[in-house]
Amino acid sequence: MEKVLLDTNSLIYAIRNRIDIEFELKGITPQILPAVPECVIAELRGLSTTKWYAKAALQYSKKFDLVHSEGEGDFCIMMTAIHMNAAVLTNDRQFLKKLKNRGIRCMTLSGGHKIQFY
After folding, report:
1. Taking the model in full, what pTM does it have?
2. 67 has which bridge partners?
3. How far is CA 17 from CA 1, 40, 79, 100, 112, in A?
4. Are 3 and 36 in contact (CB under 8 A)?
5. Consecutive H or E run containing 109
6. Any idea where the domains of the chain sit in the sequence?
7. Tell me: the pLDDT tens digits for 21-54?
8. Bridge partners of 4?
9. How far is the C-alpha of 84 from the C-alpha of 34, rounded, in Å?
10. pLDDT tens-digit series, residues 102-113
11. Helices (DSSP H) in 1-118: which residue ranges?
């Protein structure tokens, strides 16, 4: 099974656009397993005190496997992806460029329910 790490941005985008990430990924191949790094959970907890969509994304994240990570932010997700040889699902364009420069497989949610690979 190939793991795909979900970042904060992708979880919030899914909530705001009513996208079932797991369903969309399984539509591509059933061999993909979405997972959420601990640093994403920490970021969502912080945002959830003032943002309704972050609170909803935090609840939604419980649906996925939780993976150990150290640090915070994009760097944490990137290092976790490298360590696990996992892809990353993000809609953050700057982060997407960083991931591509490091040779990490990337995906984005776009056009409502489409997943694009980079």
Report:
1. 0.93
2. 37
3. 27, 19, 28, 25, 7
4. no
5. strand 106-110
6. 2-117
7. 999 998 888 899 999 999 999 999 999 999 999 9
8. 34, 87
9. 13
10. 999 999 997 766
11. 8-16, 21-28, 38-47, 52-61, 73-84, 93-101
User: Among 25, 28, 32, 30, which residue's Cα sits nearest to residue 10?
Assistant: 25
Task: Provide the residue type at 14 as one letter.
Answer: A
Q: At what angle do helices 8-16 and 21-28 cross, to 10 degrees?
A: 100
Asked if 84 and 67 touch (Cβ cutoff 8 Å), the reply is yes
Amino acid letter, 76: C
User: CA-to-CA distance for 105 and 80, rounded, in angstroms?
Assistant: 13
- Residue for token pair 């061999």: 31
H/E segment holding residue 50: none
Whole-number Cα distances in Å, 47 to 1, 12, 28, 31, 117: 31, 11, 31, 31, 28
Give the pLDDT confidence of 75-97 residue by residue, as tens digits. Answer: 999 999 999 999 999 999 999 99
**Within its chain, how far is the Cα of 110 from the centroid?**
14
C-alpha distance across the termini of the chain, in Å:
19
Q: Domain 2-117 belongs to what topology?
A: Rossmann fold (3.40.50)
